[in-house]
Amino acid sequence: MQSRKNLMRAHIVALVLDAEEIAKARRSMTHAEVVIARQAVEEGRGLVVVVNKMDLLKGPRNSALYKRVKEAVPQEIQMVIPQITGIPVLFISAIDGRGRAAVMSQVIDAYEKWCLRLSTARLNRWLRKVASRHSWKDQGSQTKIKYFTQVKARPPTFVAFVSGNTKLSDTYVRFLTKSLKEDFDMGGIPIRIMQRSVPRMASGSSSKTGQSTGKTVERTPSDKRSSVV
């Protein structure tokens, strides 16, 4: 409960893992650490993973173990939180100071991405480009986005306005999310995309007036009677 309260007050969550425990347990994260990481992402916080005590895995006898830990942690992070790609993972030793400066630098970088704002004009130019470079199997049935805009930051939240009651497919939303992260360097940050419907304009509804039916009304000067022409 206390960890959740701390998480709600945070902008960026630095999740610290123990390299020695990872080597012993042969897994990167405990259940409690997985819960914290998932909660951070669900609450829209930026996440930085820090693996401490790497100094305990130094030396020729531990070289294979050192390499395995460095390879396994990013893979397991991606498996535990598949919806977020590019979560930064830093390997440090607090006791000898190695890598400590990089932690704060990475946290600041994540915070700047988390606060990023993009103009509507820039986003719609981007949307035209990404739509043109992606070929859908059934282009005719793919929902068209009328325009795309960012409604808030922290985390970056976007709205896609689509025609009528149609909805974007999950595949298309994943494609847009992936493209946003790649093109605007937002890897490791939760991105939210919402959808809004733009009502279709009623076309050619008839009216009781002569003007709406395409007919004109001519009034003669001699009397007040009207004739339809």
UniProtKB/TrEMBL annotation:
The keyword Nucleotide-binding applies. Residues 197-229 are annotated as: Disordered. One of its GO terms (molecular function) is GTP binding. Residues 203-215 have a biased composition (Low complexity). Gene3D superfamilies: 3.30.300.20, P-loop containing nucleotide triphosphate hydrolases (3.40.50.300). Keywords: Nucleotide-binding. Residues 216-229 have a biased composition (Basic and acidic residues). Residues 117-196 form the GTPase Der C-terminal KH-domain-like domain. Residues 10-111 form the Tr-type G domain. Pfam families: GTP_EFTU (PF00009), KH_dom-like (PF14714). This is GTPase Der C-terminal KH-domain-like domain-containing protein. It comes from Gossypium raimondii.
